[in-house]
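Batch job 17 of 40 flagged for manual review because the log was empty.
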Amino acid sequence: MKALIFNSGIGKRMAELTANNPKSMVHLYNDETIFERQIRLLQEAGITEVIITTGPYPEMLKNICAKSCYKNMHFYFPHNEIYDASNYIYSMYKARDYIDDDILMMHGDLVFDRTLIPQILKNPEENLCLINKYKPLPEKDFKGRIINNELREVSINIFDSDCYAFQPLYKLSYKVIKRWLDNVIKYVKNNNINVYAENALNEVAEGLHIRPFSYQRHFIDEVDNIDDLNRVNTEIQSWDYQKQSIKITTEYLLPLKTQLKKINSEKPFIVVDHFLKKEIAQKLPQGVVFSSFTPNPKYEEMLEGLKLFKSSGCDSIVSIGGGSCIDVAKVIKLSLNTDLTSDIPTFQQTYHYNHIKHICLPTTSGTGSESTRHAVLYLDDIKQSISHPTLVPDYVLLCAKFIYTVPPYQRKATMMDALCQCMESLWSKKATKESRRYALKGIRLIKDNYKDYIELDKKGMKNIQIAANYSGKAINISETTAAHAMSYKLTSLYHIPHGHAVAICMNAILHNCHVKTKYKDIDIEKLFYDIVDDFQLDMYPEIKKEDLPLLVDSVNPIRLKNFPYHINIKKCYSSIMNQINNK
């Protein structure tokens, strides 16, 4: 099967955004263009041959397709030389010599989620069109008329009871596309080139047996103007977070090798915790291994990894480790297009989308960093929080086998981080229905599995790792609040593992703030203290009195504003220092 993308239009309604480029080269929320997104998702779905009709700026599209990440794909570029005096029916005519197979056909201004194309391709029907019976009929966009479960007409000007919202993306057998194309050729021979290609389809639709495919559970929309772009950017970002590729596996090596093969990676850059360095170097000898970073990674350490990546000719990033390891890998990817010679730290520069894929294998059950757009580095001992959509890894492999290597105390600390993230996500001012759903799923999994987890029960470890991932998904939307904001200086000053430090701060907040801790059937405060007791975690480490001002000043005011309850930070730290009764 080939894909056919109509990219010959001018895009006048996009104003200055299309002054020097085709509409498909407009940037989305993560700086990826619409065109690159389409090609990436076609590649992920296994499509290797793509016909791209061109109008203005054909070289711009060709340059994108020449990138090394598309080396397994073949592109054809029929040119519509009268793009400013014809509709895309003429572009379809110009592509006729390349249409010699089943076709997945779409418009170049369509933005869709990553699961849509695979679902269409695996559908047993040979011929499909996209409709949504539950979406209001658009005033100025395509509707599809469905009679006896077959497409009979596509038009802007139909509003009858058998007409539905429609998107111009089709899966068609060669026989059907050939029949449509034959009628397109007749239109062009009669110089009827300022109509939609669907005008030619409508005349032959009866008997083609094009079945409707509902996109109700998917995202797909077209970008015609700037308002469309703003709306699509907001909605597709949420869909992308939901549809992140996450696989749960009992072994990691074969799934990792399989994923590297799928993305055509021949030389991965592997960011790995130090204790796994030797094992990974032996099992993935084609990779470049980087492990020169500390548990609270410094900016300079990330910079060394970035320089190594750029000098070694790697074509993907793999992270295998805990939250710090994953954060280093995420920021290396984010910084690939930044200027290393600049005196400005890379996290203060403008980020641009790059095609390097990041495969993440978390080895702990804590931060959920594998599913967040956040990362933390330290510059001059000051925590730097970095947030950007492209920090979210492209693929995640959850393998509980790694947890066997984590010492018991560290397992407890990381799980407490996951629990506290879920709690903070419920409170956050930025919480949504979706983030609370993730948080409650994580809390329930922790409640039911934490005892088995600490005993290294396979099911318990798997479920806590899933819970940690839910905690990451939750804070990816809601962000963290007071407990995390207070924890970082405790970690850097007293070398308390991050998850334990967050739990200490959570304990202080529960004692000093009137927060909601009962949600539906769960008493979260009781669960928190049950786990603290079972894990025998010290909630009151020694804090030097002279450090109190430093601790108070260290709290990020932005994160603190995300906390909806009144809080006295000095009182909270003092309660830790004074070792108040925790019951």
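Reviewer: the log was empty due to a logging misconfiguration, but the result itself is present. Residues 47 and 581 are 63 Å apart (CA to CA). Unflagging and moving on to job 18.
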